[in-house]
Design goal:
Oligomer: single chain
Distance between the termini: 69 Å
Largest sheet: 5 strands, antiparallel
Number of helices: 7
Order of helices and strands: HEEEHHHEEHHHEEEE
Strand order of the largest sheet: 1-2-7-8-9
């Protein structure tokens, strides 16, 4: 009898142990599912916040006839220097840069000398043009395609990726008002310094009220020796970046980078990370 009672007690203890293990497993599974659901909710929320930043920037560009007041080209500047959108306690930092300030790798007028001026060696510059011209459509289709060019390294890629574009069809002209020193020098040589001096105005500083803006072909022709056919003074293709911070969901951060034509709202590039 005692043996039977002992067996029942042991059996009961094993049942309790098994039930406890199952309870712990189910509890952990439920906790994991809750955490996963919370993460997915935060990720979705952060994504749509970032999208709001992209379309807010696009709306500002559509209203800005001058092209310049809405631009914020320094992606590495502090958060205080970025445009900011606040929605119910969550924050979206956003800005735009002019894609037409970049050298177009798909441009009909692209020459080896332009790429050399950006810091590439002669062999690699030739290889880029040869690779492009061997393609059926004569176009780079994504910027990372440069790694398929013989001789391309991460160092060379990093040195030019923010100076070149592939999202402007075969147009070659760059915006003389927004192109940086490196791109201006690649196109205009030493005359780039005169362009920069004109843009700075009398106070010698860009971003102030007396800046010199090129508004037409005549303005460009004022710089002796500068070919007006190489430049434009207005832009329609811009690179937008928006970063959202959903604080209520564990500081979930989402960044979207897009290249868009502001006139047609056509997106050429969209990347989320």
């Amino acid at each position: 009898m005692k043996t039977k009672k002992g067996s029942i007690l042991i059996f009961t203890l094993w049942v309790l142990i098994i039930l406890s293990i199952l309870s712990i497993a189910l509890s952990r599974r439920a906790t994991s599912d809750i955490q996963l659901a919370r993460y997915e909710k935060g990720d979705i929320k952060a994504t749509y916040l970032a999208k709001a930043g992209v379309f807010k920037m696009l709306a500002e560009l559509a209203k800005d006839a001058s092209n310049y007041d809405s631009l914020n080209e320094d992606w590495n500047s502090s958060d205080e220097d970025q445009k900011k959108l606040t929605l119910r306690g969550d924050t979206v930092l956003y800005g735009a840069s002019d894609e037409m300030a970049r050298l177009n790798l798909n441009g009909k007028g692209l020459k080896t000398g332009h790429l050399i001026a950006l810091g590439l060696d002669n062999t690699l510059a030739d290889a880029i043009l040869q690779y492009r011209n061997k393609k059926d459509n004569k176009q780079f289709e994504f910027i990372e395609e440069l790694f398929l060019v013989e001789g391309m390294t991460r160092e060379f890629f990093s040195s030019i990726k923010d100076l070149v574009t592939i999202y402007r069809g075969d147009a070659s002209r760059i915006n003389i008002n927004t192109a940086g020193p490196e791109v201006l020098y690649a196109i205009a040589g030493d005359l780039a310094y005169e362009v920069l001096d004109h843009r700075k105005g009398d106070d010698g500083e860009e971003g102030t009220e007396d800046d010199g803006i090129f508004k037409n072909t005549s303005d460009i022709s004022m710089i002796e020796g500068l070919d007006p056919t190489l430049f434009t003074w207005q832009s329609n293709v811009f690179r937008i970046r928006a970063r959202s911070i959903a604080e209520e969901d564990g500081d979930m951060v989402k960044t979207i980078e897009a290249v868009v034509d502001r006139n047609t709202a056509k997106f050429y590039h969209w990347k989320e990370y």
